[in-house]
Amino acid sequence: MALKIETFSSLKGGNSFFKAVTHPATAAPAAALVRRLAHARSVAVYDPLGFATGFAALRDLTGVAITGVYVQAVTDLSQQRLGHGTRPVTELTQSGADLVFVAAFDAERLVQQVAHLLPAGAEVATLDVLRLDANLLTNPRNYLDPLNFATNFAFFRDRDGAHTRLVTANYWSNYGGKQTSLALTLFDAEGKVLAQWREPLEPGQSAVVIDSRVVRTRFDLPAFEGQLFIQAIGAAGHDVVKYALDTFEDDGPSLSCTHDANAWPADFYAGLPAPRADERVVLWVQNSMPIAIPAGGLALNLMGHNEIVAFDEEVAPFATVPLDVTRLLPDARWPQQIEITAGKYLVRPRYEVTRAGRTRVAHPNVERTDLKPDPKIAELGQYLGKGFILPAPILPPGQWSSLLLPTPMALTQATLPVAATLYDPSGEALATRQFGNLGRHESVALELDELIGDSIEDRANLPWGHVELAYDFSAGTEVDGWLHALFRYEDRASGHAAETSFGAHVFNTVLTYKDEPQSYAGRPPGLSTRLFLRLGAAPFDTICHLVYPASTPWHPRSSTDLTLLDATGREVARRRVEIPCGGSLFWRYQETFEAAERAAAGAEAYVVIRDVTCRLFGYHGLTGAGGRFSLDHMFGF
Predict the structure, then answer these.
(1) What does each C-alpha distance from 437 to 16, 166, 194, 270, 306 come to in angstroms?
(2) Burial 454-465 (b: 16+ CB within 10 A, else e)
(3) Which of 4, 104, 3, 5 is nearest to 45 (CA)?
(4) What is the pTM of this model?
(5) How many CB atoms lie within 10 A of CB 181?
(6) Cα(18)–Cα(57) distance, integer angstroms
(7) 443-471: per-residue pLDDT in tens?
(8) Which of 35, 574, 581, 615 has the highest CB neighbour number within 10 Å of its CB?
(9) Going by DSSP bridges, is the β-strand pair 298-302/224-233 parallel, antiparallel, or unpaired?
(10) What residues does 580 pair with on adjacent strands?
(11) For residue 512, which of 549, 555, 552, 476 has the smallest C-alpha distance?
C-alpha cells in the first residue's frame, strides 16, 4: 500500500515534483482539479514528463473517465500508466476527449507544442492550478526548482509544563540568499491548521529560534501536539531546512533533543528500539501527506522477523497519532529492534521513550531499499585504511554510562560483520570488541563500560574519549557501506537517558570512493568542517563532543575554531582548539567562554565550529538540574 511516487533518489537527490504536489497549500486546488477532471465526459492525459502516475498516487482518479495516456518521448511508448498503454502524442487528436489533462507544471510551452493536436473543442487543464503564490517562491521562472521547495517538518508541541524549541541559522545567506524568510504552518493532532505566519530572517547568518510557548501566546492557542511545516523562501545552496529541536519539561525531569527530519518520506525506517520491561515506547505517527494514511498503511515488525503487524487506524492528512509499539508487538523487548513499514507517508518520524517519569525523544533512520552488498569495500583497505567509520562519544564515565547497538539499515543487510574500538582523547586505541557476523535478527547491545573496564581500572577519573564502529572483515565481507548504530547514554545517578543514531562514512582521506568522503557542497572528498551548535538558555549548559575520525592518517592535529555569534550572526568571541587525529574533545559552553562573552552574545547565541583542515563529526546536548541531559548528532551547512 506504499505510495507509488518517487520522493528521493540516492543518485538524483530529492524530488521537487513530489514536494510540489504534497505541499499543504495544494490540498484545496488539487481537490478542485480532480473534481474538474471527474466532471468531464472523457479525459486524455498528456504525460510528457512522467508525472501523471505520481499525481494519481496522491489523488483518487478512479472517477475520471480516462480515454488514453499520451507521451512525447518515443522511448516512453507502450508503458503502463493509469491503466493504459502509453501512446504517441501525435495520436491525441483521435482521442475524442473533451478535456486534455497536461500533467506538468510550467505547462504553457508544452500546451503550445500540441495545440494543433487537441481534439476539437477540448478544454485543457494543467498542474499549474496547484502553483503556490508567487510570494512563496524563490525562483518563479522554474517552478520545480528544488529551492522553491526548501521545506521540512518538525515535531512540535506545547502543553502545560512542556514545550519545544526549534533552533537554526540563516545559513542560506552564506550561499547568496537574500531577503530570506520562513513560511510556517502549525498543525494540531487532528491535522487541522492552528496557525500560519511568516518569519522574516535577519540578513547574514542570523539565528532562528521558534519557541512553542511564544507561538502559543502569539496566536492564543490551546495546548497542542502536532507538527510544524517549514518552508524557506529566498533559499540558496541548500533545499533542506536543517534544525535542532529541544523538548523541555519545565518543572519535571524530562529533556531531549533531536536534529532535523529528512525532508523526504521513505518506504521503511529502522532502528526503533523495543522497550525495556519498565519503559513505554511511542512512535509518533505524523502524516506528512495531504491525503489520509489508510488503515493498514503502516506496519511494524521485529527486525529480521517476517511477521508484520499492521496499524489498523486511518490517520488524517497532516495528523499526529501516538502509537504505543506494544499495541502491535506486545512481546517486543530491548535490545530487539523494530522495523517500520511507512509507505512514504512519513518523513523520518520521532519516537518517545518514557521510563520512571522521564521521557526522551529520538528518531529512527531511513532504511535503504536500493542497496546491495558491494564486494569492493572489503578490498579497499590498502587505499582507504579503516574505510567506513561510525564515531560516537563516550561521555565522561564518572557521570554517564554509554551503550552501542548495531542497527541494520537496508533491506538487503542479512548480516553485519562489525567491531567496536575504544579510543582515548589522544586517539590511542584502548580496546576492541568484535561482534562477529551478526544476523539480521540478532540485536546485540554492548555496554561500553565493558570495554572501559578491560583497559582502565579507575573509571571515575577516566578522560572521555570515543568509540568507532567499523566493519570487521575477518568476520565477513558482505557489506554495503550503510553501517548504522544506536548509541544510548544514561546518567548513573538520576537514570535520565538520551540516545542518538547515525551512519558511517569515510573520513579524512583525499582518495574517494563513490560519494565518500561525503561533502556537504560540491563533489567529494569533504575535508572541512562547518557545524552548527545551538546553545541552551539558562539554566541549561551546552555540551559538545567533537570527534576527529580518520580513515587514513591525516593532519596530526586539527585547527578548529569555536566561534560564538550573537543572534544577528555577529562574532562575539573565538577559541582555537586542536584535536589529535583519531581523537576527540569534550567541552562545555560555560567552561569554554567567559561569563562576559556569554552575556554579550545573549540568549539566542550559537556557535559555529569551523575547520578547513579536516572533517570533524560532532554531538551536542544540554545539561540541567537533577541529572537531566540531552544528546544528538549535529548538522552542518
Answers:
(1) 39, 40, 50, 19, 20
(2) eebeeeeebebb
(3) 104
(4) 0.94
(5) 17
(6) 11
(7) 999 999 888 875 555 555 666 799 999 99
(8) 615
(9) unpaired
(10) 557
(11) 552
- Give 348's DSSP letter: S
**Got the DSSP string for 293-333?**
BPTTSEEEEETT----EEE-S-B-TT-EEEEEHHHH-TT--
Query: Using one digit for the tens of pLDDT, what is the confidence trace for 209-238?
Result: 999 999 999 999 999 999 999 999 999 988
Q: What is the pLDDT of residues 46-59, one digit of tens each?
A: 999 999 999 999 99
- CB contact set of 576 (below 8 Å; sequence gap of 6+): 559, 560, 561, 562
Which is it for the CA torsion 307, 312, 318, 319, positive or negative? negative
**Can you name the residues that pair with 45 across neighbouring β-strands?**
69, 101
DSSP 562-573: EEEE-TTS-EEE
- The SS3 call for residue 363 is coil
Which tens digit of pLDDT belongs to each residue from 339-380?
Answer: 999 999 999 899 999 999 899 999 999 999 999 999 999 999
The single-letter code of the amino acid at 418 is V
Assign residue 297 a region: left if phi > 0, alpha if psi is -120 to 50, beta otherwise? Answer: alpha
